[in-house]
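Quick question, first post here. What does this chain look like in 3D?
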Amino acid sequence: MANIVVFAAHNDDHALAMGGTIAKHYRRGDPVTTLIGSFGELSHPHLKPEVIRKLRVREAQRADRAYGGDGRVIFLGLREFKFEEDFHRKGFAKSLAKRLRELKPDKIYVPAPNDTHPDHKAIGALVLDLVDDNRIRADVYAYYVYPNLRQVKAPRLVVDVSDTYRRKLAALRAFRSQISLFSYLITNNIVFLYALLRNGLAGFLRGVRFAETFHKIR
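> Answer (accepted):
Ran it through. Tokens below.
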């Protein structure tokens, strides 16, 4: 059994990039702690911030239960596009480092520090610095949410998620506010389809139905 910590910038990022792997960890009996950077209030500017916060939290909880978890998800409350500024506010990084040490992770998953979305990139780089500065002994794996032709040069980990892919799809269906005709009509739906095609291609190259790919950066 391994202690797993998953970081994501927004509530659906990890579902898109590694939902099958999370479900696999739960199936093995691994404790999984998910920490999400932002509530994602800017995704629906026509709604009051408190409304979208509650909605995004409920979606993340439903997705975690779909993986096989108990629905406990931690939101860090960082402001979109201001992750670095908020991360370095008084006491935040110290508090997060303490929480990480208490969790005693064996594996940490983060968005790739060179992902093309600024928030994905920011939280990946910030968590990596936190791990290094506090000498947290854990394997750190990077995942991509958005397409990126210049991926980090690091050993690759390919996880066969064929047996948990239905759980990933069930988790993705929890994010109704993100995958719909009325929310980011083009961008979000393309990212959704890209994730499915990427998993199918990775699986084909591996000789299985579906696979998720990571880069070991620590």
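The chain has a mean pLDDT of 91.
The chain has one domain: 4-216.
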